[in-house]
Amino acid sequence: MLNLGRTAVILLVGLTVVYLSLYFYWRSGVKMRLEEDWVMEGRPGDRADWVEERLEPKAARIRRWLVFLVYVVPLAALSIYVYVTN
Question: Which of 3, 52, 70, 75 is in Cβ range 3.0-4.6 Å of 19 for a Cys bridge?
Answer without folding.
Answer: 70
